[in-house]
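So, read this over?
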Amino acid sequence: MFGLRMGVCVSLLGCLVSLGCSSNKNPDELSALRQQNQQLQSRLTEADSKLRAAPDATQLQALQNEIAQREARIKELEGQLQKGDAGSASDPELKGIKATYDRKKGELTVAVPGDILFAPGIATLKPEAQTTLNKIVRAIKKDYPGKRVRVEGHTDTDPIRASGKQWIDNLDLSLNRAAAVTRHLESQGLAKKQISTVGYGENHPKATKAASRRVEIVVVVG
């Protein structure tokens, strides 16, 4: 369990950097990464004390490797900030996608804007959206193999109009959109038993209507 918790922190950072999930990195984020690194250093010291008498130092070595990876990524981010081009390496196909980690819940959430995935009032994925989802799937399969995934559909507060004959309400639309994403994740190799699908309609709005229209892919990392 200890190794898993530490791995979550490193894998999360890997998602944010390698996938370009957050293209607007800033000094506040860098400060947070440094703080997390200090926490890792503290836990390494604690683990070192416990393992000194043990013949197997594998766990200690794993922690050292994780800290080295984190330090390397922090240096990379520092370099980008100094050059003023933190977003230059971001993937255009992942523009607008954000990843957040809830430490208390142990959940990594990748929020994909609905306008990237679907046309207005439609629950069929755009062809170009499939490429975006494929990259997210590859990251999940690499960093969180076998972990439970929850696909959540969300809409804005506008009532159904033009597509009213197709959808009962926003809840219906959000669930069908989430289902479309779920089917695509399954087609790319995620197991059906690994994924659950939920529709929330307009019940969890964001600051703007555009931000509210989204599908969130939540990975339960532990």
